[in-house]
Amino acid sequence: QVQLVESGGGLVQAGGSLRLSCSASGSIMANYMGWHRQAPGKQREAVAVWTSFGGGPSYAEPVKGRFTISRDNASDTVFLQMSTLKPEDTAVYYCNLVGSHRGALGEYWGQGTQVTVSS
After folding, report:
1. Which of 12, 15, 80, 83 could form a disulfide with 35 if both were Cys (CB 3.0 to 4.6 A apart)?
2. Cα 82 to chain center, whole Å?
3. What is the predicted pLDDT for the residue at 45?
4. Any bridge partners for residue 117, and if so which?
């Protein structure tokens, strides 16, 4: 069973930056990786996603130009670099991977990391 562990969340002032990390406990050949967030009282939404089907990463409109998703294949770690943060970015952020682990296709979610942006 693969587990995803996120880190890097915290409290930051508006205009600041944070880098979220998502480490997998096992090797996953990911077809999809994404970062999602859920603010209080709101539905979970995808903010940055990447698929192996080409076309590069895609971003939700509110974070375009400010967030960047990337992956270090050597360490099975997915990152979300967040810059020019705004109070409306406050949410719990979750990483999500879909891929093969030991020949079996699965979907994996992290436990979430809190990001709070103060004005």
Report:
1. 80
2. 10
3. 97
4. 12
Extract the tokens encoding 58: 């895609």
Residues paired with 97 in a beta bridge: 33, 108
At residue 70, the 3 state secondary structure works out as strand
Residues of the chain with pLDDT under 50: none
Rounded Cα distance between 108 and 95, Å, is 8
Partners of residue 38 on adjacent β-strands: 92
User: In sequence order, what DSSP letters do the residues of 76-103 get, joined into one string?
Assistant: TEEEEEE-S--GGG-EEEEEEEEEEETT
- How far apart are the two ends of the chain, measured CA to CA in Å? 40
Q: Which residue has the tokens 């974070």?
A: 63
